[in-house]
Prior knowledge:
Elements: H1 17-22, E1 33-37, H2 39-56, H3 61-71, E2 75-79, H4 88-107, H5 113-124, H6 131-150, H7 158-165, H8 175-178, E3 210-215, H9 266-279, E4 285-288, H10 302-319, E5 325-327, H11 352-361, H12 373-378, E6 381-384, E7 390-393, H13 414-430, E8 434-437, H14 449-462, E9 466-471, E10 479-484, E11 487-497, E12 510-516, E13 523-530, H15 533-537, E14 547-551, H16 552-556, H17 563-574, H18 577-587, H19 592-597, H20 601-612, H21 620-626
Parallel strand pairs: 1-2, 3-4, 4-5, 7-8, 8-9, 9-11
Antiparallel strand pairs: 3-12, 6-7, 10-11, 12-13, 13-14
Amino acid sequence: MIRLSALSLFVCVSIGAQCTGVIESDNTIDESVAVEVEIAKYEVDFLQEFDRYQSTGRKTTNFDRLLDLIQSQDIKVTLDRIPHAKSPKLCLTCLASSYTFLEIYKRTANKEKTVLVKLAQDICHLFNLKTYVCDGLVELNADMMMFILENLDELPSAERVCAVAYQGEDCVVNKSEILSDRYPKVNISVSNEVLGKSKGPSTTSDKEPLTIIHITDIHYDPEYVVGINADCAAGACCRNVPDLEPSDSSNAAGFWGDYRDCDSPWHAVVDVMEQIRSQHPKIDAVYFTGDIIHHFTWNTTVESNEQAMRQIFQLLKERFVDIPLYPILGNHEADPANLYAPHHVPQNLTSAYLYDFITEQWDEWLPKDVNRSTLADGGYYTLLSPLGHRIIALNNNFCYIHNWWLLYSDIYFIRQLQWLHDTLQEAEQAGEKVHILGHVPSYDNYCYIGWTREYRKIVERFAHIIEGQFNGHSHVDEFNVFYRKDDPTAAVNVAWNGGSTTTFTKLNPNYKVFYVDRESFEILDQETWIYNLTEANQHPDRKPLWFKEYTFREHYGLTDLSPKSLDSLLQRLAHSDDDLLQYWNLKQKNADPLLAKGCDKMCLRDALCALARTEYADDSVCDRLLTHHSLLET
Length: 634
C-alpha cells in the first residue's frame, strides 16, 4: 500500500488535465534552448526561492529563471534522473511543487486546513493557471486531502508522489521498482483450470447480426453559451467564466460545439440521440460507457452533477424506449471529479452518495434479479442480457491516475478485480460469452499499473469467453490488441473505444455501431459515424450532416475482427507510414485542427505502440512490430 501526501500536489495534481494543458508538451513546441535540469538541486532552489517570495512578496531573478524553465516555450528541458519523461516540464512542476509543499508541511506547527489550503493555493498561483481554477480545485479537494495528510504513516518523497500521479507522463524516477512484479504488493487469485489461449475467429451464424450502439463521453455543459469566448485559457471554456468576451469573432463558441476546450450544448446532445434513432431503426442494445459531466472540474457540486445526469438518463430513456441499455460511470460523474473513494473512509468522503444515485436512476434498465449489492459497493454490476450474453459493467475509474485516492491506497480496487475474475469463472462454467464495459481503457498509460497488470492477467485467462471490451474516456477512435505477456506474438483479445459525442478537444463528435453475431457474440464489424464540426457551425440553422466515416473491415481489408486478424493489421501498419497515418487520421476522427497539425514519425510510433500496449511501459509487442522499420530511427 502507498500512502502519499496529496496536498503537496494541489498545484498540479489536484488540477490534473488543466495543468497538463497549460504547461505545453515539449514535443509540440519549436524550442531553441536545451537545458538539462538536476532535479534534486532544482527542488532545493525552488523551495528557497518560494520561502523568500513568501517573506518579501517579490520574485528574485533566480526565481523567475526557475519558473521560466517550466513555462517558457523557448526552452527545452531534460531531467537528469528522468531522461525518458514524455513531458519533462510537467514532471518538473510536480516535483518542485510537491517537494516545496512537503518540506514546508514538515516544519509547519499549525496544520489547520485554512493554513494548508492557502499554502497550496500560493504555490498554484505561481504557474500559468487562472486564479479561480487554482482556488476552486484546492477548495473542492481540501477535505479529502486533509484526511490523507492526517492518516499518513510517513511522508514520501516528491519523486514517489509524481511517479503515481503522473505515471502517464513517465514522471517515474525509479522505473525498475514500479515495473517490478512485487509492485504494488497485491495480486488477485487467478484460477488456472483453462489456460488463456490465442483466440481465432468463432463459428458465426447465418442469422442477421445484432446491432449494438456504443455511446460515450457526452460531457454535457448545461451552461454552454453560443458566441461566448471559446479560447479562455482556463482548461475549459464556452460558458460564463472570467475572460468570457471573445477577443474577436474567431474565438466565439460555435452553435454545435467548438474545437477548443468546450463541452457539449444541450441541443447537440439531443441531436446525437435523434440521429442514432433515425439512422438505425433496429437497435438490439446500447452500451453507454460514461462521462456525462463537463470539464469545469473546479466548479462542480453533487447537486449540479446529479441534475445533469438526470437530464441525460431521461433523454436516453425517452430515445431508447424498450431497448436494453447498459450504463457505467465515467470519472467525471464523481464530485470532486475523478475521486472514487476506498472503503472505510469517513462518510462525508465516501462515494456512497453516487452509488445510491445510480442505483435509483438505472433501476429500469437493470433486471430485478441483478445483484445490486455491487452497485452499492463500488458502482459495478453484471447481468445475463436478454440477447443471451453476459454483460460485465465495471467501475474502473479507480485506476485513473488522477483519482487522488490512489495516493492513499493503491490496492483498494483489488476487490472489484477479484469479483471480475470470479464472475468470468462462473460465466466460463456456464458456457456464457461476455462483453466487458469499462470507462477508462485498461491499456491506457493513465490507468494505474496496479490495475492494468492484474486486469491483463484476467483477460489472458478468460480471453476465450471475452468477445469484446468496450471503453471510452480517451475521446478518440481507437482499439487495442491484448497479447500474452509471456509471448508478444500471441494476440488473445481486443478492446474497442467508442470515442466521444463531445468535441472536447479538437475533435468531431461520433458514435459507433457494432455488428455482433447472435450466437457467438463475436464482433463482426463496426462503423464510426461523425459530422464535421466546422461545416456544422457554418449552418447553425440546420442539423449537422452526419455520415458514416468508415466501416472497419472494409476500410482495412479484413475478413474478420479476431485478435489474429488485428495482429496482422498491426504488422501491416508497422510497415507502412501511409497506412499508419490513415489510421491516425481516423483515430482523430478526421477533425480539422488535428489534420492541420499532422503526425510526425514520433507521433506515428506512439500511435502504433498504443495499439499494442496493454500494461504501462511494456513495449515488447511494439518493439517486435518496429523491428527493421524506419520508425525505430526517430
